[in-house]
Amino acid sequence: MTVKSIDGYTLTWNISGPLNFIEHRTSVQPSDVAAGDLVGVAGTQDGTTATAKLVVIPNKPTTAGS
Predict the structure, then answer these.
(1) pLDDT tens digits, one per residue of 30-55
(2) Cα–chain-centroid distance for residue 57?
(3) Largest alpha-carbon pair distance within the chain?
(4) Distances in Å between the alpha carbon of 52 and those of 32, 61, 62?
(5) pLDDT tier at 63 (50, 70, 90 boundaries)?
(6) Residue 40 to residues 10, 47, 57, 64, 66: CA-CA distances in angstroms?
(7) Structural domain boundaries in the chain
(8) 64 has pLDDT over 70
(9) Where are the beta strands (DSSP E) in the chain?
(10) DSSP 30
(11) Is the Cβ–Cβ distance between 53 and 24 less than 8 Å?
(12) Could you tell me if 44 and 50 are in contact, meaning their C-beta atoms sit under 8 angstroms apart?
C-alpha cells in the first residue's frame, strides 16, 4: 500500500501478518478503502522496510446543513 502525506512524502507499506482497518472505532474490510481516500497508517519500520499494522479511516468531513 502506498500512502502520500499532505506534505508530499510517499511511503510504500508492506502488508504482512495481521492488519486492522478501523473506521468510527469499528473494524472494517480492506475493500472499504479506495485509492485517494484519506487514511492514517501505523506500523513498524526496519531499515527501509515499513510494515503496516493499522489503517485508520478518519471521520469524513461534513458540510453545514447536511
Answers:
(1) 888 889 899 999 999 999 999 999 99
(2) 6
(3) 48
(4) 17, 25, 28
(5) low
(6) 13, 21, 6, 25, 25
(7) 2-57
(8) no
(9) 2-4, 10-23, 26-27, 40-46, 49-57
(10) G
(11) no
(12) yes
